[in-house]
Amino acid sequence: TTGTTVLAFDMGASSGRALIGQLQADANGDRKLEVSEIHRFPNHAIQVGNHLHWDILRLLHEMKKGIRLAFQNGYEPSAFGIDTWGVDFGLLDANGELLGNPYHYRDSQTDGLIEEVSGLIGQEALFKQSGLQFMPFNTLYQLYAMKKAASPKLDVAQTLLLTPDLLTYLLTGIKSCEFTMATTTQLFHPGTQSWNSELMDKLGIPSRLFLTPVQPGTIIGPLSDTVVDELGVSSMLAVAVGTHDTESAIAAVPAGDEPFAFLVCGTWSLLGTEMDGPLLSDDTLKLDFSNEGGVGGTYQLLKNIMGLWLLQECKREWDEQGNEIGFPELVRLAEQAEPFRSLVHPDDPRFFSPGGMANKIRAICEETNQPVPTSEGEIVRCILESLALRYRQALEQAERLTERTYGGLHMVGGGIQNRLLCEFTANAIGKPVWAGPIEASAIGNMLMQLVALGQCRDLREARKLVAASFPIDVYEPSYDAAGWSSAYGTFLGFGRV
Ligand code: LFR
After folding, report:
1. pTM of the prediction?
2. Is the CB of 133 under 6 A from ligand 1?
3. What is the 3-state secondary structure (H, E, C) of 9-58?
4. Which ipTM value was assigned to this complex?
């Protein structure tokens, strides 16, 4: 039996993907989601003068190619959805044209602005009206940076579209704003569930730019006629999915009805737990967790951790030096390196900006009187052990905040292909890790399309579909408990929450 077909675009900081999802039912009526990747393309940050940008038109080009390929391969998707990283945006002028190249969230324009804005508004006040961890890249600081730079773009802009909404607009001509992305801006008020125009006024950010958010699962509208003509395909409906990739990934965690802890593992690592609403307690502020809007009326209490970015950057540097080593080989070298030789706190702010990663790691090891890692294997081992210990710290913090304990950790996303990281994590937390699915963001994206199309009732039913469709790998804690717990002691000594 042939069922519904949907197309998901999942845009990550290092690559983008187009995947087809097909909902199939067997003779007993048991349903499964089958996923196949039809297009994958790199995504590069591009430095132009003083600013770091995304190449948004290249992404649009690759997405069009993805649509064409879908039809050429004989699929007839009824809908498509787009999810991307958080916080970034484009501005449109009164004619609906894009004003300039969107900034990359790692652009240095926001350096020092957390402190400046906290000085103006008050850290606690800012937290209570946004619920977010203080991350330098939040949309709020980006817009404040433009304001401070007297950017003429801000004056002429009519509409702000967050990246997934912008890409949807470029394919449909329809402007929209999806809720989960809106909650990454630090300008959306979790109490009033609306844009915080009072805060915008105080900071000189024009509130006219913001559209009223719609919930994930809302149908936006068809591909524009020009795109349909250009590509020679039949039309399909754009759906506002959980357009923030992290939220789509969490939607695809194959959890049941019990509270659960998750780790979305990609360029970033997002560790937390699903809630019915935001937890705006003093401890949430103290431990610097985020409350991000999720799909199906959920809120996700989570910690943003620097993640595999550390490894990606080292690899990029080594590649550029002509020392090309694939990820599997790097992981193998790490496996052979000496355990617990040196550790860093992955959220040291120095790691945030691109470049010089291996040297930053070495400098921090030296500062903290540890052996300085020299070989690739030593550096990768340091990164992976440090991440696993960071996960333990964040998991314990999440347990403290929610006064719950979790029996294990669901890991999803591309990072779980790194089996050593999954093993280390199970060992560090002393609990099982349930790893899968890998393509969680794309799958979660598809799930909300199925909800929009009436093929799936809700998030609960969607998660059952994931559990029925994709295998998971179980990692039991297995190795050197004493070593891990003493390493954790060292790690906590770094004194960073
Ligand atoms: C992960 C992610 C995180 C967000 C970061 C920057 O891909 O979306 O949730 O904090 O990227 O936008």
Report:
1. 0.98
2. no
3. EEECCCEEEEEEEEEEECCCCCEEEEEEEEEEEECCEEEECCEEEECHHH
4. 0.97
